[in-house]
Design brief:
This protein has helices at residues 18-36, 40-65, 92-130, 142-185, 198-212, 228-235, 241-251. With 256 residues, it is an all-alpha fold. The chain has two domains: 1-37; 42-255, Methane Monooxygenase Hydroxylase, Chain G, domain 1. α3 (92-130) runs antiparallel to α4, α3 crosses α7 and α4 (142-185) packs antiparallel against α5 (198-212). The protein is elongated.
């Protein structure tokens, strides 16, 4: 029985050749697929948009957490005189409450930070893989491509700043937790309502290490701390592909 679509192929010599008709159909499908596929730079810009939409409430979270309020300021004498600690809560019950609050603040930051770091990783990975000085767009002018590449680099640097800011907050909270544990130790076998056992203190320390080292969340937040060289490069808007390749290699490991 003749196909209802045979007439479509009369003029190109494929009417009586099913194989040719199939190949033509496949070529057409591939052509349509290519048209619908996003260009690499567009995909990167979409990832940047996704990061930005999540970064706005995250930055507000960092503000509201006020980690800096818990910063431990230690001079030489403070290593010997715990009584000079401005964060001293005076009683065991208050120290426990303060310790639980610090844990809650730490967790509230590290969880969404990990999500942002995943997007950051995808963005860096695709940029390094697909974008270079010879990148060409079918639909955009060279001027537009250059502008969007520069914009992408700016946003990648902003991402690093946001993650570094979060890392700083977590570092402050980590030190505050350890400092609170030092004060809790002063209540070991104190007796009465202010009594805590050495065993409980040990368990608190182990749980804190699991939390602040990133083991609990499988995420090493400390990677995002910036040194002076990092800050200088970002301030100048520098994006060195070779340097960023090393950065990318290390970034892959923060989720292990």
């Amino acid at each position: 029985m003749p196909s209802l679509y045979d007439d479509l192929f009369e003029d190109d010599g494929t009417k009586n050749n099913p194989t040719d008709r199939k190949l033509k159909s496949l070529d057409l499908d591939n052509h349509l697929f290519d048209e619908n596929q996003k260009e690499s730079l567009d995909e990167i810009l979409l990832l940047i948009k996704q990061f930005t939409s999540q970064a706005e409430p995250f930055s507000q979270l960092l503000s509201n957490t006020r980690a800096v309020d818990h910063e431990v300021e230690k001079g030489i004498l403070d290593f010997f005189l715990i009584t000079n600690d401005k964060h001293n809560q005076e009683t065991l019950a208050k120290e426990r409450k303060y310790y639980a609050m610090l844990q809650s603040k730490f967790t509230s930051i590290i969880s969404p930070m990990k999500d942002l770091a995943h997007i950051h990783l995808q963005t860096i990975k695709q940029f390094n893989s697909d974008i270079d000085k010879d990148y060409y767009s079918i639909e955009k002018t060279d001027k537009q491509v250059r502008f969007e590449k520069e914009s992408a680099i700016d946003h990648i640097n902003i991402q690093r700043k946001i993650l570094a800011d979060a890392s700083t907050s977590l570092s402050i909270l980590e030190e505050a937790l350890a400092n609170t544990e030092d004060r809790l130790h002063s209540y070991i076998n104190a007796g009465g309502i202010n009594n805590i056992s050495s065993s409980e203190c040990e368990i608190l320390t182990q749980k804190r290490i699991s939390l602040t080292s990133g083991k609990k969340h499988h995420f090493d937040y400390s990677f995002f701390k910036m040194n002076l060289l990092d800050k200088t490069a970002i301030a100048m808007g520098i994006y060195l592909k070779e340097t960023t390749s090393q950065y990318l290699g290390k970034l892959n490991k923060v989720f292990n």
